[in-house]
Amino acid sequence: MYVIIRGHCIEGENLEELAACLFRWMPPLVPWFAELQKRVKQKSTECGSDGKAFLSVVKSDPELFPIEMQSKDSPFREI
Questions:
Q1: Helix (H) or strand (E) run with residue 40 in it
Q2: Of the residues 18, 37, 47, 68, which has the fewest C-beta atoms closer than 10 A?
Q3: Signed CA dihedral, 15, 21, 26, 29: sign only
Q4: CA 60/CA 34 separation, integer angstroms
Q5: Backbone dihedral angles phi then psi of residue 2, each to the nearest 5 degrees
Q6: Distance CA 14, CA 12 (A)
């Protein structure tokens, strides 16, 4: 599955792999991407995993993290 946020593709087989892909991106990063990494790290303990934190953070701020495209099996899709 994949999700494209502001032209950056994040992909993996499940939520945890999506989060792992997010953290593989290294500086220099565009400011919003560094902010996404920071928020996911902060929320990870509360959510119980990096994957669930990633999902929560992206869904909580669609203005800063707009999803441009996603796979049909993406967990970001509204049911």
A1: helix 31-47
A2: 68
A3: negative
A4: 16
A5: -150, 160
A6: 6
